[in-house]
Amino acid sequence: FDSKLPNVGTTIFTIMSKMATDYGAINLSQGFPGFSCDPHLLDLVYKFMNEGKNQYAPMSGIPVLREILTEKTKKVHGVDYDSESEVTIVSGATDAIFSAITAVVKPGDEVILLEPAYDSYAPGIILAGGIPVFVPLDIPDFSVNWQRVKAATTEKTRLIMVNTPHNPSGYMWTQDDLNQLAALIQEREIYVISDEVYEHITFDGRVHLSLMTHPILKERTFVCGSFGKTFHVTGWKIGFCFAPAELTKEFRKVHQFVTFSTATPLQYALAEYLEEQNHYLELPHFYQKKRDLFCEGLKGTDFQFTPAQGSFFQQVYYGHLSQESDFDLAVRLTQKIGVASIPISVFFNNKDDHKILRFCFAKEDQVLEKAISILQKSK
Ligand code: PMP
Ligand code: GLN
């Protein structure tokens, strides 16, 4: 078969999670919480299912959820959007990212990706006929190298993909990053997709700077988010996309033929839940305790690391210990030692091996303690 995606195989998340199950390893690979959401949120889903909210939702999302989300965004970021024409409820951030790419990228357009980049970006760009242009982030802190970004920008550049807080490194964009990007796109017709699924998982008092907070960026950006990350329900596959009306119009043209709409009872439940309380405000504290527990334990291993700024991932460097590839080490740790992780070479187009593994610390404390004890003993 003449594949449209010849270089794409099964995602590393599927591979490592399966390997963890097959070998009985603690699964710190694929990013998902090892604990359940607030039982009240489940009660709300049940309530709305019982009330008969079981048929197609409106294509753009139920109005009450769009309204409450728009109010929350105003409260958190101080930014105004029109809930009718500038926000769309989608089936996970993956849907938002794919639909936004498809809406913007024409055959031959170049799209700048900052590597390491989340695995769903490049396939979406290639399917749209676009050309991914890979620009490496600066190691070791994974900050943006603006000279390199500028050098990679051409008349064909149509889109730049942003991810803050960043998966896998946890790097969070600064005001200077926002300003640099604004200056760059102001000169040309370049659009931005900002993947902000970890917007509420930030540490050490850092504030997430959404691209929507910059007036120039707001006009050109699709800001994508995920309720899965914020409410510990990654399996629900429900998220959102904020964009100016003109861009939302194009976005919806695609979204309506990708999924048409998103699970109705989940939308009602999330709307009521968001109306009732501010669960998301507790996330920095909740996840920082887990990050600190994990990092404290890592001190008893030979890995080198800098605590993550945001997201629920912690990277570790092992290049001073071994020349084994990160993929081989991740496989060996899973099969022989009993802890699964993600080799970050998978987030690079050329599978660059920086001898770094990514661990997900969104797990019960006792699971993290057990993983740490295994890693400490295996050094
Ligand atoms: N972007 C990033 C950076 C992610 O880590 C993930 C994964 N969970 C997604 C997008 C996809 O989010 P969703 O599950 O809501 O589709
Ligand atoms: N975003 C999750 C991660 O980075 C994985 C989601 C998926 O399996 N597609 O681990």
From TrEMBL:
Q: Which Gene3D superfamilies match?
A: Aspartate Aminotransferase, domain 1, Type I PLP-dependent aspartate aminotransferase-like (Major domain)
Which GO-annotated molecular functions does the record name?
kynurenine-oxoglutarate transaminase activity; pyridoxal phosphate binding
Give the Aminotransferase class I/classII large domain ranges. Answer: 26-373
- Which UniProt key words apply to this protein? Aminotransferase, Pyridoxal phosphate, Transferase
Q: Which EC class is this protein assigned?
A: transferase
InterPro entries the record matches: Aminotransferase_I/II_large, Kynurenine-oxoglutarate_AT, PyrdxlP-dep_Trfase, PyrdxlP-dep_Trfase_major, PyrdxlP-dep_Trfase_small
Establish whether keyword Transferase is in the entry.
yes
Cofactor or coenzyme needed: pyridoxal 5'-phosphate
Asked whether the UniProt record includes Transferase among its keywords, one would answer yes
User: Which Gene Ontology cellular-component terms appear in the entry?
Assistant: cytoplasm
Q: What is its EC number?
A: 2.6.1.-
State the family named in the UniProt similarity comment for this chain.
Belongs to the class-I pyridoxal-phosphate-dependent aminotransferase family.
Q: What is this protein called?
A: Methionine aminotransferase
